Amino acid sequence: MKDNIILIGFMGSGKTSVGIRLSYRLKRTIIDTDKWIERRQGMSVSEIFDAHGEKAFRDMETECLKELLRTVDGQIISVGGGLPMREENHGLLKKLGRVFYLSAAPETIYERVKSDTTRPLLQVADPMERIRTLLKQRAPVYEACADVILEVSDKTFDEILDQIEGEMKGKNI
Description:
Helices cover about 55% and strands about 15% of the residues. The protein contains 8 helices and 5 strands, in the order E-H-E-H-H-H-E-H-E-H-H-E-H. The protein has a single domain (about 5-170), classed as Rossmann fold, CATH 3.40.50.300. The two termini are about 25 Å apart. The chain has a 5-stranded parallel sheet, with helices on both faces.
């Protein structure tokens, strides 16, 4: 297993925000798999969904993990919310590093993402119901994939970072 910190969780759970702050604290580079794919494809995730469909995007996520496995170590990797849903990706994530699931309540997620129009899966009539439905499907998969589950709804960034840092040092803070 490599020495990367992998952040998984539903959209709006704080993967990117936590990852950026953690990168400063631990002096590690952060890689966001969605941004990595966007750079490679020259288009946004929404544009990829529109032009090629969700399956093509999910294939790109798996290829991204395979390349990261070959090329990175000692970094922070924030993955898209749907990436852990593909069974093949579980083993890749485990080989890439320690997997942290940032778990957040549906209400917390909704508050964080309600005005974000760049999220293709939430462009529906009832985004709160969509969040609940998707979270019910995804949470058990996230939990199965994770080495550490962190409930983040009522925590500050510093509390979350302290927990991750403690887990990486082998302590349970």
